[in-house]
Amino acid sequence: MFKYGTSYNLALDKFLLWRDFFKVRVHPEFYSLYKPGCFSEVSMEFSKRSREVALEITRAISESLGLEPNYIHDAMNMERGIQMLAANYYPPCPQPEHAIGIPHHTDHGLVTLLIQNKMNGLQVEHNGKWLTVDGPANGFFVNLADQMQILTNGKYKSVMHRATVNNKATRISIAIPHGPSVDTIVAPAPELLEKEGQAPKYLAMNYKEYIQLQQSEKNYMKSTFDHIRA
């Protein structure tokens, strides 16, 4: 699975999308560009190492919830889970006040790792305001995503975020989303509900169907959670 494209000069709510990108699946099947010649080897190694980081994060979250360390890994069938590698290129924009790199959204998976060059542009929503993320040098910024919010019954929140552009310098970011297997039925963890004495806040839904719903035209830039609240 491979996808690439450009978002230049597309009208969207009075804003222009301003981005070149490619996106490729790297797990459970590994796909790659053929050029440049070294890309396949480098991207495979990078994907394997970043996957180790993501799985360690899921283990830490499981333990923080009082569950077994591999609970999320096993319940979400992450051995067959979807992992993507996406690269975004945002050149200087002559009118950044009229453009956006990526509109506001939440990621549909479990956890996304993000790195960027020294040009900040990632913003997260907090208490109704957009805050620019000062990303760690040579480190990952971690976004929690929709299936993590569903699985934890809202204890861990999916992060609303967007990418902005500037008129000074190019911004480059690499995102590595990790999710369940496409056939996994995701619902609030029964063990967690029992432990916390809670009712489920979200309906169970097949992960593939959730992705299709989130990416449907009628749901563009809207919260998919509105369709699955219990």
UniProtKB/TrEMBL annotation:
Q: Keywords, A to Z?
A: Iron, Metal-binding, Oxidoreductase, Vitamin C
This protein's record includes keyword Translocase: no
Report the InterPro entries cross-referenced here: IPNS-like_FE2OG_OXY, IPNS-like_sf, Oxoglu/Fe-dep_dioxygenase_dom, Plant_2OG-oxidoreductases
Positions of the Fe2OG dioxygenase domain: 80-180
Database matches in Gene3D superfamilies: B-lactam Antibiotic, Isopenicillin N Synthase, Chain
Provide any one GO MF term from the record: L-ascorbic acid binding
| A Pfam family reported for this protein in Swiss-Prot or TrEMBL | 2OG-FeII_Oxy
Which PANTHER family does this UniProt record tie to the protein? OXOGLUTARATE/IRON-DEPENDENT DIOXYGENASE
Family to which this protein belongs: Belongs to the iron/ascorbate-dependent oxidoreductase family.
- According to UniProt, the name of this protein is Protein DMR6-LIKE OXYGENASE 2-like
- From which source organism is this entry? Prunus yedoensis var. nudiflora
- Which lineage ranks, top first, belong to the organism behind this chain? Eukaryota, Viridiplantae, Streptophyta, Embryophyta, Tracheophyta
